Structure formats: C-alpha cells, structure tokens
Amino acid sequence: MVARREVAAAEVVEAALGRIARLEPSLHAFREVWGRAARARAREVDREVAAGGRLPLAGVPIGVKGAAGLRSPVTRRLLEAGCVAVGATSVPGPGTGWQTWGLGAGGRTANPWRRDRSPGGSSAGSAVAVATGMVPMATGTDGAGSVRIPAAWCGVLGLKATNGLLPTADRSGLAAPGVLVRRAADLAVWLECVLGRPVPDAAAGAGQAVTAVWSPDLGFAGSEAEVVRVARAAVDRLAAAGVVRPVPPAAGAGAALLDPGEAWLALRAPGGDRRRAERTRAENDGRLAALLTGARLLLTPTTPNRPHGHDGPGERYSTALTWAFNLSGHPAVSVPAGFTADGCPVGLQMVAAKGGEGLLAEVARAAEGVGPAVRGPAGGESRCGPGSAPGRGSPAGQPSGEPPGGR
Length: 407
Hints:
Layout: H1 9-27, E1 30-33, H2 35-50, E2 61-65, H3 73-80, E3 84-89, E4 103-104, E5 107-108, H4 124-131, E6 137-142, H5 148-154, E7 157-160, E8 176-181, H6 185-195, E9 210-214, H7 225-240, E10 244-246, H8 261-268, H9 274-294, E11 297-301, H10 324-328, E12 332-339, E13 345-351, H11 357-368, E14 373-375, E15 381-383
Helix pairs in contact: 1-2, 6-11, 8-9
C-alpha cells in the first residue's frame, strides 16, 4: 500500500509504535524500541516512494531479533527493500539456560495466548510481536528450532531457510536465518527480498496435491498425544482440501531418523565427538534423501510438547523435532495447526528438500485458507491455518481485543 502511495510509511510506522506502546508493558516482546529512528526512516521511505523508487516492502515495520540483528546481512537486505526496523525483539537473557526463552526490557516475555506459558525461543519476542500485530514481520535465526518453536507456540508462521543459502555468523553451520510472519504470502516476499531474485514456483501445479509423508515423532521424540492429535488433524484437513496427499514412505525409506541430539550438541561444544556426530548426520541425510525422493514433504508436529511454563520444560527437549533439520540443513516451516484443549497453539512442521523454500511458501499459502477464522491473541481475526480454533473461541477465554490475562 505504501509503494502504491495509498498510505504513507509514516502512518504505518506510527500505528505500529502505538500498538507496541499499548501491548509491550504486559508482553515484554522488545529489548529496545527505536521510535525516533523508525519515524525518521519512515519519512525517508516516503520520500523515496514519492521520487519513484521501487521498494517491494516500502514502509513495512519489522522487529529485529536482538540488537545485534540490525547488522546482519539479511536485515540489511530487508531495509534496502523499504522495511522500517522499529525495535530489537527479546532473546534469552545473559547466563540463562536453554529453558529460558525470552527477556524483554520490562521482564520475561509472555506467550500472548497463555501468559503463564513460554512463547518459545530463542526468537521469542519476534514471535510475540508478530502474533499480536505489533509488526507484520520479524527476523529470526534458527540453530535448533529457534524460529519454528516460537512460531508454533505463538500461532504464527516461521520459516528456517536451507542452511548455507543465506549468510550467517554461526561457525557451526547449524544455524540459518529465518522469518516470522502472520500471512503466508509474506514468506515468498521475504525470500525474494533477501535472496535478491524471484523464488521459483515450486508447487506441484494448480489443483494438484503435494505428496507428503507424516511422522508423529520421527521415531524417537515421544510426542504428547494431544499435540500429535492436533497436528494430525491439520494434515487430514489439508488432505481433504487437496493441498497435500499423504503417502507412505518409499520402500526402504521409512520416516524414522536417528535422534540428532547428541550429534547437535557435539558439533556445538568444544571437544565434542565430531566423528560420531558426522556418522549420525550422514545416516540421517541418507534417510531423508530416500524419504524426499518418494514424497515432496515430510510433515511432523513442530514440537513434541505444548508450551511449557516460564520455569522451563525440565529435562524435556522442545527441540526434539526441529534440530534434526539444522543438522541436515533442510528448509522447514511451522504453520499454525490448531489448539490443545487448554488453549495452547500447536504447529505443523513441513520439511522440504534443500532449496525447497518456494514449495514450502506455496503449500503454506494454500494451507492458510483451510482452517476456520479465529480471534487473534490481541484482537483482530486471523486464520488458524489447517487446524481448529481453541475450544473457548478466543485465547484463554478473553473476549476483548487485549492480550489474555495471566501472570
């Protein structure tokens, strides 16, 4: 709309800053809010548009994961496309364990659907900011599920790109840039802007379902029964709508992997057993290659568990179903699947062959129209994707447009 001069970037950014000011005190999604700089940048965008500049994301307010994220090559490309960075979103605090997912300037980051639960991490604030409409897009990095997990637990879309496709400072090779959005169409726009080229339409074709293999646990994760039920119901809805066509694994392929946990940790820890880690990686790579030869997608719940409390999940790894694809490097997206009976969002993870981001974006777009409309966690109507709405109709039974209650 800004690019078409239907509205000014300054107006859009001012509205975003106003929503942040209203919601931030209870959600703590931001470490820093850059109001003055954002307003100045919005005025620059308006001047560029008026002068005939072509900015595909003119005036789009974005949250940037952590203050350091402003210097990343991916963020710079988004700014060049016309985005306006409004603040640094929350990440885990210094010295905290992996169970602590987000610390904003005002305190721990709350899940907007269940304030007593974690929003996931480590792109915690980015997911909350997008889920509540503070911004339509936020950056993230995904080293073990750090984009997909908060996307699943906050009811938004989160894409991890193919490892190595985009530049990253992570020396282990396990992390990849990603993005969190509310609308599936924005995934393709993000890809085109950060890649600097059009993303090929990789869908199977108009009206043709995409073949997909379903796995509730990848053979090792011990997924919660209700989480599996919600995610599987989403797959069934997609199948009924002709978006995907579930197929069994190709002969000899199977949908089970070796648990990647030890290998992932060994590759990140000094002195880890890299030879053993590489054996696990090679075995899983072979299994995934065989599986994705017989089908175009692998579908799983995004996490084996629902959002846990702020004290952490204990010994359970919420990364169990995501970090296999950091080890292998495959692209993956989490799309909203529905809700557990206690109002917690569940994500459906879709994994494609390397370089298959276009396919993931197209399937996510098709999935968006399948689910019923539900009230968002901070007002406004949105699509639940292929899943079902929470049993009480709105987050934690909250009828107003404000974030749900809780501590």
